[in-house]
Write a structure and sequence with these properties.
This protein has 22 helices and nine strands. It is of the alpha+beta class.
Length: about 600
């Protein structure tokens, strides 16, 4: 449920400001609301330090610590890490440039320019030409040496002519000396490479300070939060006042808690006004806590005056995930992965994430067993190779499997539509319970009738035929529209009431068709997942039949790995969408909330008399 909030105002004497903030930081129950948001900012140095250390930590987190641990502050460590990262990037660019030069100078071999200069100083001036091979015989000079073959039928020749009588062939082109030589470039590249290695070694030493940097970030963040809270209140020479939100269940004890800490302060508690929007704090039912991982990942919360939909998500999303993946083998992999890496997942993302992964795996296993699908292998696969015993064992626990492909697809499609209708109906039934005895309850009941009637309409369109559709279907839709138009916006003027209700009901009425049809994706994506698995199984079998199973196994493993990855994407692209969009629209949740974040203070930081 969404925890009820109370507006709280706290006033104390100005000289007690820091002691009050200390006490509130220790209690951790007040979400401070700035009086003037423009002033509620942290010091520029603190914000810069948090940013710098965070970026420095990103550089060091992927590096294995080694070597001696330097003794230096976290901020200096971050600055050096960022400087080294920039230097390494520049050196890598320079190294790439040198490698390109090496490719360009390969033509000249290990020729050193200083040798050419020495020869020139003694009167031996070597010139280089590009000429056609057929013209080689025409060259007359003191010394002619072929250096390399050029593209086409040209060659590169070196010519020495101290007599000055050499005449180059008409089509010959003189090649100027290179600006540098290959040995010089290779030497420079070796120096740059050594510098990069030295920089990486230094980064490995700095990585020893990663934990200290993380602690310092937490310290600075606490300082920043304290500064923001200080600037969020109203201060004068005599008084300091704060406003904010606190859970109603803890509001009454706030004054006593401050008094116990010898803080003299006036505490006033007020209920939430109609136009106010308090922060959202969700108290999840124990069985629905795993779904918190999804909300944390998406960063979305219902508004304070909206509904807590976590129980609905906790029931629907594993079912949707199971149908989208549709394979008992994949479900087993997810469940085993959740159990095998439980501690690592908990450290990285928390217990809800680990539990949600295991639940997804178990739900997918169950659905795969019911539909007799194991890594794309079905009873038909075993019947085809004469293993009827295995096929019969699979069929004994697979009531949803059908040997006829058309019949099987129609069955899963029907199940998807029924689940969709039930899902949307549950949203309006929830509203019925919440609104009763308000007259708008009847509008929600009308929407339930419309959804069921729309399912009947879709059923006839897809499975029975339009010609056999009862006329009552249309009449029920019309009656439902009239009922929603009358009860959606209660007001004293009957005409205005009906017209406003009609205007706000027509588009949602049309939307019920597309909302229910959206659940076809559960069938479609699950079917696509099966065909992908089946295709890779067939391809792997062909390779194994023509070569060896060693050649076929990697294809099958790759195919199933790819399919599991696509299935994970499908959960977010389709399963989450059905909850966050279709269901939420019908239940009236706009996801307009912001998180309840009470002011808490690091125990190692004392506000004292310091102005942070």
């Amino acid at each position: 449920m969404i925890v009820p909030m109370s507006k709280v105002y706290i006033v104390t004497q100005s000289h007690n400001r820091n002691r009050l903030l200390d006490a509130l930081g220790q209690l951790g129950v007040v979400h401070v609301e700035p009086v003037d948001p423009g002033k509620a900012v942290a010091k520029e140095f603190t914000v810069h330090a948090i940013s710098t250390i965070s970026r420095g930590l990103q550089v060091l987190q992927g590096i294995e610590p080694s070597g001696d641990t330097p003794e230096m502050p976290a901020l200096d460590t971050a600055k050096e890490a960022l400087s080294i990262q920039k230097a390494i990037a520049n050196e890598n660019d320079h190294l790439n440039t040198l490698h390109r030069k090496v490719n360009q100078l390969t033509l000249w071999g290990n020729l050193e320019l200083r040798r050419l200069e020495q020869l020139r100083s003694t009167g031996i001036d070597i010139k280089f030409f590009s000429i056609a091979q057929k013209d080689l015989a025409e060259i007359e000079a003191e010394c002619v040496e072929t250096i390399a073959e050029l593209p086409g039928r040209d060659v590169m020749v070196a010519v020495i002519d101290r007599n000055g009588q050499f005449q180059a062939p008409e089509r010959a082109k003189e090649i100027p000396w290179p600006a540098t030589d290959l040995p010089t470039v290779r030497k420079e590249a070796a120096e740059v490479d050594a510098s990069i290695k030295q920089h990486n070694k230094r980064l490995a030493e700095l990585a020893n300070l990663s934990e200290a940097m993380s602690r310092q970030i937490r310290h600075y963040k606490t300082e920043a939060e304290i500064c923001v809270v200080q600037n969020s209140g109203l201060a004068s020479d005599a008084l300091f006042a704060l406003q904010g939100w606190t859970p109603s269940c803890k509001a009454n004890s706030l004054s006593d808690s401050l008094a116990e800490r010898d803080i003299t302060a006036a505490v006033e508690l007020l209920p939430v006004e109609e136009e106010e929007q308090p922060p959202t704090l969700i108290e999840y039912p124990r069985w629905a806590r795993p779904i918190k991982a999804l909300f944390d990942m998406l960063g979305t919360l219902p508004g304070y005056k909206e509904y807590d939909v976590s129980p609905f998500f906790m029931i629907a999303l594993p079912l949707f995930a199971a149908m989208l993946i549709g394979d008992a083998g994949y479900g087993a992999i997810l469940a085993v992965a959740g159990l095998a890496f439980y501690k690592k997942i908990v450290r990285a993302a928390g217990k809800p994430a680990a539990h949600l992964l295991i639940i997804f795996g178990l739900a997918t296993m169950l659905w795969g067993i019911l539909t007799a699908n194991y890594f794309g292998i079905t009873p038909q696969s075993f019947i085809g190779i004469g293993r009827e015993g295995i096929a019969n064992a699979m069929l004994a626990i697979a009531p949803l499997w059908r040997s006829d492909g058309e019949e099987a697809r129609a069955l899963i499609m029907k199940i998807s539509l029924i689940i969709g209708c039930i899902h949307l109906v549950s949203a309006h039934l929830h509203n019925v319970v919440k609104l009763f005895p308000d007259s708008r309850t009847f509008a929600e009941i009308a929407w339930v009738v419309i959804l069921v009637d729309m399912l009947v309409l879709i059923w006839h369109l897809m499975f029975i035929g339009v010609d056999q559709m009862p006329a009552a279907v249309g009449y029920v839709l019309l009656i439902g529209l009239v009922a929603t138009s009358w009860f959606t916006a209660p007001m004293s003027n009957p005409l205005k009431r009906f017209l406003i209700g009609l205007a706000s009901s027509i588009l949602p009425l049309l939307g019920t068709f597309s909302d229910i049809m959206s659940y076809i994706r559960l069938f479609a994506v699950g079917l696509a997942s099966f065909y992908i698995a089946d295709a890779f199984n067939g391809l792997g079998a062909k390779v194994a039949g023509s070569a060896t199973w060693i050649g076929g196994a990697p294809i099958v493993i790759f195919g199933h790995t790819l399919n599991i990855g696509l299935a994970a994407i499908a959960i977010f692209a389709h399963g989450v969408r059905l909850n966050m969009l279709e269901f939420s629209n019908n239940i009236g949740v706009k996801w307009a909330g912001y998180a309840y974040r009470p002011f808490t203070k690091d125990k190692d930081i004392s506000i004292g008399e310091n102005e942070l």
